[in-house]
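Thread: quick sanity check before group meeting

JM: Hey all, I'm pulling together slides for Thursday and realized we never actually wrote out the predicted structure for the chain we discussed last week. Dropping the sequence here so it's in one place. If anyone has concerns about the input, flag it before I start.
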Amino acid sequence: MKSTARNPEPAPRTSQAIPHCVLGRDITNHWESASRREWLVTNGIGGFASGTVACANTRRYHGVLVASFKPPVERTVLVSKVNIAVQYLSERHELSADEFDGGTLAPSGFTQLESFRIEDGIPVWRFAIADALVEQRLFMAPGRNISYVGLRVIRASAPLTIELKPFCTYRDYHSHSRGARPFAMDAGASECLIRAFDGARPIRLSISEGSFESAPDWYWNFFHRIESERGLDSGEDLYTPGRFTTQLESSKEVFFIASADAAAPGTGMAVLAELQRVSAALLAALPQNVPGWVQQLALASDQFLVKRGDAGDSGSSVIAGYPWFADWGRDTMIALPGLTSTLGRHGIAADVLRTFARFVDRGMLPNRFPDGGEAPEYNTVDATLWFFQAIKEAILASGDSSLGRDLYPTLIDIIRSHVAGTRYGISLDPRDALLRAGAPGVQLTWMDAKVGDWVVTPRTGKPVEINALWLNALAIANDLAKQCRDPAGKQVCSELLSRGSASFAKFWNESTRYLYDVIDVDGGTATDASLRPNQLFAVSLPYSALNATQMRSVVEVCARELLTSYGLRSLARRDPAYVGRYGGDQRRRDGAYHQGTVWSWLLGPFALAHFKVYQNAAAAQAFLEPISHHLRDACLGSISEIFDGDAPHGGDGCFAQAWSVAEVLRSWLYLQNAVEKKGV
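JM (edit): ok, ran it. Output follows.
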């Protein structure tokens, strides 16, 4: 037997990241805390892997390999999980966990989990087994539907035998599959090839060093507790082809590989090195002495950037949120500056903007690209207006004036289409040059919850943030018209901007000292005085029609009535329609979605609005810092889509949301620049 003193821990891999999301036994050894914390890795084409710290699946979306067959959509769960066991010093130790219908939890390997961390965006588990310490990591190959599980010994007094048992399926990631199916398998010495049915993409499972033993079987009634909590079906049956076995010593790392690609996978070490290079480049784009939590957000930003289409004819896009969203126009335009321009990814920003410009139709950007690859849906009034701001941010960050010249014809066409009128009643009101929108049964703003025929917050008329965005878009187009030497376009934009800015005064509610949420409701003259955060954009956007006193009053009332540590409530608590908890079945969840639920992405605009009013960058930046605590909860290293309106503001919705990460990151960096300038 080797002495542990002669087998010291290897030097850690080089990483510029400050470890931030590190969990110890106080969390990892308890089922409730370990199973509630999740992790995510992505492949840049819409595919991903996700699961829990406890190594048990609690969602239908969890999986070691969730492939994207039509990037970035047609996402299909192929390998649900890989259970790992260790034979060491004549004893067997299970490192995985499974929950079954009826509450059975077996095995419960998380009790061996000494620590969990996110390193270079990669989840890393360390299991303590007697005097041995075994490390597991999981990652994906960029641009390919291939996942890797890496295993290495940190210390041990004898070799370990590792057994890996993969559990497979073949289903749309929004569904579950039940019952045995005739999976076909071809087995080799260290790999197997699985076909779920005729015409299915083959799944190749292999191990870099070791052997495969065929033992096909079905396991019944895996339980996904979060789906049950959401009022959805929660059971699943999974197929295992057999087991992979390898001997593990401290001098090597062994990789289990799950692939849906036709081409051979790269080695685990080569892919890991590539991922570390990407991580280093992202961190290098940050200012010096950035806190670890901000570094982590920079790494998380990479998870949302994807390629759209086939390799020979692809453009770039943004996944709105994991685990269930695809790429949405609104989310993409809001998130794009924070994901790209602030981190020096100017080429990606331009590519995304040019990609979406190709989809402009009747002056509108698509709201959603359906998961099945169907035609885009054009049912948004604000995505198109955020497009203008994303272009401006990209030009300012890169200095690339050609981007503005190239996209200007699209922008001026958008303005003319809005003046003339386009889908769903979106048109200019010639009486005041403000934008009106709405049609029965359609939700057009970002407050877009709908259950069946029930549009929860229709906001038909002239919503406040839509007109703040409209005026901001006119200001941007006006500047570009001058640069592009288009006097006719400049005259149109200048006149509309002047008239619209004067008319924006109609949003001011003198009795409450804040802005109406909607005026001219349903095409009439009524106003909606609901206290919502939408009015913040009339302050935070570069162009504002408000005076200094009005801007200050808006920020003050939002701070007093809507602000929480993790974002802003979508409705004031004193409103009779306020719902303080988000949960239950779909009708209850969607009914609460914009009726008090906290949205984390709004924290960024609030901080910027606060800075504009008070000119204290450090004070504004402090509003963002509580997010650092959240990064150790929910999906480690990322930001949840929403939180409960009532304390303690538990996270919910998508566990990793693009605009949440992007807006907090963008705002923090913007304010940091202001802090440093003041220091100089």
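AS: nice. The domain at 4-276 is CATH 2.70.98 (Beta-galactosidase; Chain A, domain 5). Residues 37 and 243 are 28 Å apart (CA to CA).
JM: adding both to the slides.
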